[in-house]
Design a protein that fits this description.
Blueprint: H1 2-8, E1 35-40, H2 46-64, E2 67-70, H3 76-84, E3 90-93, H4 95-104, E4 109-114, E5 122-126, E6 147-149, H5 155-169, H6 173-176, E7 182-183, H7 188-198, E8 203-207, H8 208-217, E9 227-230, E10 238-241, H9 244-249, H10 253-262, H11 267-270, E11 278-280, H12 287-295
Parallel strand pairs: 1-2, 1-3, 6-7, 6-8
Antiparallel strand pairs: 3-10, 4-10, 4-11, 5-8, 5-9
Helix pairs in contact: 1-12, 3-4, 4-12, 5-12
């Protein structure tokens, strides 16, 4: 496992500048009538995404001199399919969906990630009625409890928890748990947190960032759904671009886009990703995710 994770969690150096980058109006020259379409996997309530990504849309328009728009994707698979079809050009993917999209589109590039994303982790949380407490040891007592993942295509809500359950127990979740494993059809990590906090499901796996932010905002109580186990680190979220942008806006545009994103210090823009900074990313940093997805049978 250690060897696999070393290829998954590759450290990167954060680049923090004093402004959101030099404005470059030339990037969009001759691009009249073309629009850079942004989307994101719906790992939270989609009703929250539109407002959060408006600042990113405005920022890219201002800095690059282009037209941009945010377009909601119905689910994780839809975000990948729309990218494959060229309907969207810049996507905030999870580790797994990013790999799926890039493997399907030759020339697609991961260009940015959050400062925390090279070393991401998942929480396993439990309803207070279970009596389970936080431990460094895998909570084998959850075997006979109701358990939920998030989306089937979620890295932190399904893929990596599956991988670590297999490593800890020697069994796939479907074999380890004595009751049928559940998935959250909509709502992403928010839905997992609320299902466990309400007691409708006893145990669940989700993104640590989403859990921490929901506790901080008072959306859920840590007393109702305490953390009982934390996974090892792995690489996760990333901004991936479609190679069609080079045809739309000219050679070198993707590099300009990457610099514009990484240079940004506007907190309203960064709220879209729930990150303090964006740092560079490259495809190779997520090859470990691809290997894990093959090992657990999600990808070939």
């Amino acid at each position: 496992m250690k060897g696999c994770l070393s290829s998954v969690a590759i450290a990167a150096t954060a680049i923090t500048l004093s402004s959101c980058g030099d404005k470059d109006k030339d990037a969009g020259a001759g691009a009249s009538g073309k629009t850079l379409v942004i989307t994101a996997i719906p790992d939270e309530k989609v009703s929250d995404q539109d407002a959060k990504f408006k600042a990113l849309q405005d920022y890219l328009e201002s800095e690059l001199g282009i037209d941009a728009e945010f377009s909601i994707s119905a689910d994780y698979s839809a975000a990948v399919e729309r990218f494959k079809n060229g309907e969207v050009h810049l996507v905030w993917f999870g580790g797994l969906t990013g790999v799926q999209a890039r493997k399907a589109v030759p020339g697609a590039r991961a260009i940015a990630q959050g400062d925390v994303d090279p070393q991401y982790k998942s929480y396993v949380i439990a309803h207070k009625s279970t009596g389970l407490k936080n431990s460094a040891e895998f909570p084998s007592a959850i075997k006979d409890m109701t358990f939920t993942f998030g989306s089937k295509s979620s890295t932190s809500g399904r893929l990596m928890p599956t991988y670590f359950i297999m490593k800890e127990t020697g069994m796939a979740p479907e074999k380890f748990f004595t009751q049928p494993v559940q998935f959250q059809a909509t709502g992403g990590h928010d839905a997992t947190a609320r299902a466990v906090a309400s007691g409708s499901v006893q145990v669940g796996a989700l993104s640590y960032k989403k859990y921490d932010s929901m506790v901080a905002s008072g959306e859920i109580s840590a007393e109702d759904a305490p953390i009982i186990w934390t996974t090892p680190y792995y690489a996760d979220y990333n901004l991936t671009v479609h190679p069609a942008l080079e045809e739309m806006y000219g050679e070198g545009f993707i590099d300009k886009l990457q610099k514009t994103l990484v240079d940004c210090t506007d907190k309203d823009v960064l709220k879209a990703f729930n990150r303090d900074d964006l740092i560079p990313a490259k495809n190779e940093e997520f090859e470990g995710i691809y290997e894990v997805a093959k090992e657990v049978g999600i990808m070939r």
